[in-house]
Input
Amino acid sequence: MRFTVVTIFPEAFDSFLRASLLGKAVAQGLVQVDFVDPRAFAADKHHTVDDTPYGGGDGMVIKVDPLVAALESVGHDPDLSPHRVLLTPQGEPLAQRHLVELLDRRHVVLVCGRYEGFDERIRTFVHQELSLGDFVLNGGEVAAMAIIDGVSRLVPGVIGKASSLTTESHGEGLLEYPQYTRPREFRGLAVPEVLVEGNHARIDRWRRLQMLVRTRQRRPDLWERYQPSGEDRTILAEVDGREDRAELAGRAYVALLHYPVYDKGKRIVTTAITNLDLHDIARSSRTFGLGGYFVVTPVASQQELARRILAHWKEGHGASYNEDRAEALALLEVVESLEQVLTEVEAREGKRPLTVATSAAARPGQVTGAEVRRWLGSGQPVVIMMGTGWGLATEVLERADLALRPVHGGAAYNHLSVRSAAAILLDRLFGLREET
Ligand SMILES: C[S@@+](CC[C@H](N)C(=O)[O-])C[C@H]1O[C@@H](n2cnc3c(N)ncnc32)[C@H](O)[C@@H]1O
Output
């Protein structure tokens, strides 16, 4: 690969061409860089290459005649006419694809400006204009160095492992995945577990996911042009599903009703609060990312009991003994009626929630979890009503906006505890289906 740099400051390249991988590539003859100084083609004895602008204005302009003479002096193979690139902030912003194209040209002439820029007529004598970016440099030399550096690393033999060229940023229109090296932990910042487990299939998948997600987040412009493969889509669907579920669950609330519910004899009663229901449904609600959990009882002494249990775990000895429990129970609120639940959720979400009834019995019109998620997806908050005792009273079931299909096993027996039913229903609604 050959570069000819047209510049009045060739000395700016001295150490650049000697250092590191590029220095080695030059020494091995894989990359050849030569210079032409337009001053050598100036007509006057002072070797002047700039002059004042026609029409007046600040600064000096690079003259077209010595520059074209310099370009025309560049020696080349008879079968290979050099590709001339003007370096200017008005050119196309440099991207990886330009470097790949320049590699194919085999001999590239990089024309560096200075001062206020070039006499406009130089544009007739070049093939392409490139800019390093939307900013102005004092001269084109830094841009020329960027191009020499970027193209050289694509020349076979310059970089040890050619495969690193395809996975790195912009290799295939994506940013690279995050990289780590020793130490495994630095000031509390740990290397992701997947990278140290040694499962290469998992590492490859994780890296691919990072490339996709990073590019989508950081560079929407690149993402718009990128065409994800089927495999890419599968990998992304997994995280998107996870984010979606978490977002939907945040608008969902559980209400555990102790009234009006049936007793064994189908009479409407108020049941007693159960310590396990407070804990376990709070833990399930927290695990699935719900917005809140309401325990509903009209009996003041029962409310008082529930609040005392809560205070123990949220503020008392329990809080320091088990912080995770306090985190789950922070979701729990004790209220006296379903109406109070709806008012509270409306105040939080800015919208009256839909009520979703649950029951162990199959009835016509019951919906699947997908239907509830559809409502949540439209921004609608929902309250999932769970009944204690022998289940929610008919008046609650009939007034509900939606009813969820019951949990069924293959056996004739169907008497789950409300805690178990809540956990299973929440898993159906918001659980991620991963291979187990
Ligand atoms: C001070 S600049 C002239 C800018 C010019 N007056 C303009 O506004 O377009 C001098 C020279 O630096 C080089 N240069 C400056 N910014 C550049 C960039 N972003 N990319 C490539 N070359 C640049 C060009 O060769 C340019 O002719």
